[in-house]
Structure formats: C-alpha cells, structure tokens
Amino acid sequence: MDYKGAKKGLLEAGRDFHQRPFWTIFVVLSFLAASLTYVALATYVQDSVGMATIKTAPTIYSLSTSTTSIGIREIVDLDEETKQYAIRGSYPVFGISELDFKIKELVDQGVYEVKRTDNHLDYQNSFTPSFESVHIDPELISFKFILDRYEGGSHGRTEIVGINYSISQARFFSLSDALLMIGMGLDDVAEQAKKQLDVKLDKHLDEEGLTPVFKNYSTFIIKPDSVSFIFQQYQVASYLQGMPEVSFARNN
Fold this sequence. Notes:
By secondary structure, the protein is of the alpha+beta class. The chain is built from 5 helices and 12 strands.
C-alpha cells in the first residue's frame, strides 16, 4: 500500500476544505438544518392539526381602534370520530400567545382524556368544546369556554371555564380582581348569591356550594357593567337545574 501517497492525498484534501469560501460551507449546513426543521414541523402539524379546520372569525368578534385591532383572529373547528370517541366543536384564536396557550391547553386536555379511556363497545365517548357570551373591548376579553364530555352513563357532564384577560396588563384577571370590581368581599358575595339563587331555584339549593371559599367562586365572566359568577353542575343545584349564575354591578 502506498502510505506516502495516501498521506499526501489526505493533506491535499484538508487544504482544499480549508480553502473553500466560508459562505459555501455555511450554505450547505443551513440547507441541512432547514431540511430537518421542515420534516419535524410537517410531522408536528400533521399530528396536531390533522382533525382541525381553521376559518376566519366573523367580524362580530373583533374590535378596531385607531391604534390596533382586537378580537378573534380565527376559529378552529374540530371533527374527528372513531368507534370509541367523537371530538367535535370549536375554539377561538386571538393571536395573543398567553391567552391562546390557555385555551389550547384546555382543548388538548379534553382531547387527551377522551382518547385515553379503555375500549368499550356499548357507547361512544365524546368531547365538544364551544364558547359563548364573548365580550371584547380595548381593556378586556371575556367569554365562557364550555367543555362538554360524555363518558358513559345517563348523561354527559359540562364544565364552564371563565376566560378573562386584561389586554393592557397582559394577564388574566383573578378572583381578587373581580371582587375589587364589585367592591365586595367573598363573604358578602356568598350572602347575596344565596338570596339571588333562592329566588331563581325556588329555595331548592345546596348551600355547601355557596360557602365563601375560592373554589366556589373561581368561575366568572366580566362585562363593562357587571361580574357574573357561574356555578358548575351539581355545585348548588341538581343536574336538571343547570348551571346557575349570579351577577353583581361593577363599581370600577
């Protein structure tokens, strides 16, 4: 074997590599990185959006000012069905990362739960997200995010999540914020809520769900002139009586 010739060839190859213009090497490496990124992104999009249809939101869900446009940018429709489960419904996209992440997190959790259940032949699980009571102004985005589930039994279960986002402060409103808006403490809210619900439910009321603790009043929506607290299924009333609300006027 000609070791001297092989050594000379390696040295020449090394000199040739180092003499190549830097931009050539950079372009080759950039192309490889872009190709890998494309493959990964294509796989992710196929897995996460394969059952979704994205459409432009109606103009009723937007508000334009002299400096910005606020509102729902898109509505994502879900439609996936097998013998074991059905996923149908929709959720909004606002183009605000923190807000959109929260909404998508709730949807992903519902999808995960409906898919992970054991095999069953006598019924079909379902998950249906939807939204209503949308309010948008330069300071506030607020709406009810409704998560319907069926996992067997005589009827399904529904959860309402109150989404309340401060545009100017770039954060979600807390229960403390809501209480400040109406100028009341939690004890006062609980007392007044009982009076309102006694009338609405004809005194068929489970008072335990009204005790003045955080979890009982953590679901609310905000309007320019009021704050409404929403009680979950079975929290204060029977299934047939639904998910009652109580409202209080805002002071600020």
